[in-house]
Amino acid sequence: MLHIKCPHCGLRSQNEFSYGGDATVKRPELNKEVSDKDWDNFVYLRKSPVGKHLELWQHISGCRQWIKVERDTLTHEIFKTLKANEEV
Amino acid sequence: MTSISALNHIHKTGLFGNHESKGEENLLKVSEIKNMLIVQIVQYKNSTVSIENIDIDSLKLKDEPLNVVTNNDTRILWNGPKNWLLVSTKKDLLKNISEVLKETDFAITDLSHSRAIIEIEGNDVKEVLKKGCPFNFNILEKNNSINSTYNGIAFTVDMIDDNPNKIRLFALRSFGESLYHSITDSSLEFGYKAI
User: Fold this and answer.
1) Which of A3, A5, A16, A59 would you mutate first to test chain B, the one with the most B CBs within 10 A?
2) For residue B109, which of A59, A62, B40, B143 is within the disulfide window of CB 3.0 to 4.6 Å?
């Protein structure tokens, strides 16, 4: 069981959160031509790193905010949590 | 039109669980709270209005985790950033809220008929909550509130008093029956009086 420190509410159980995927993926810019390959990569291609990974989580049963979590995928250690609009 | 409360056919009064060897004053007291005004207040992200200048029933909105601002009739619970749940016995307060909070800056939603409210009072209240909710209730003080889950059911806890402990639980109306059974099952060990 993980304990995640929500930047809004404080330390809460993982049960209250929902995983939202890789937080480093950037959407292709709006109103610009995007190749099928770039779009395909954006939608489907994900890394599966061992070690530090920046992830999106939603505090779905709490304040309902999206947050960023820097987590070690091997040890599950959580190094840092940020608001969704903050950068590491 | 008569309104039917969320737990109308579910909540039965009487003594339940391990109550025989205890005096009534040592039992948990479980009741349904009805006829409350429940309003969700959300300030839009692009709104620049300062909440310090807002006055609802002599209360100021406070954007602070766990915080509940309160008077005799009304409680305003912090639900998230720029998000509050107002609970009041004054049913006509909605008009006042709509006047004070402009619709260009705030979304006001009347949730009075879409929530089930269970109130529990007694010394073992926190023990009941600990059975189904992962939150550390030892840090929850009087006039604090949290959102969490109880046996998988999303709910809001509002700590009204701490001597003895008195809390209100809010769940979606359709989950009210499940939450009621979860809470009362957990209360059987301590014995409870449904009032």
Assistant:
1) A16
2) B40
Its pTM surpasses 0.95: no
Tell me the CATH number for domain A1-23+50-88.
3.30.2270.10
- Sequence-distant (6+) residues with CB within 8 A of B171 are B115, B116, B118, B150, B153, B154, B155, B156, B179
Q: Taking CB atoms and an 8 Å limit, are A61 and B135 in contact across chains?
A: no
Q: B56 lies in which domain range?
A: 37-110
For residue B80, give both structure tokens. Answer: 């998230």
Nearest to B93 by CA among B107, B73, B69, B113: B73
A:52-71 residues touching chain B, CB 8 A cutoff: 61-65
Distance from the A76 Cα atom to the nearest Cα atom in chain B, whole angstroms: 19
Report residue B13: phi and psi, to 5°.
Answer: -80, 155
The tokens describing A44, both together, are 């489907």
Asked if B31 and B78 sit in the same domain, the reply is no
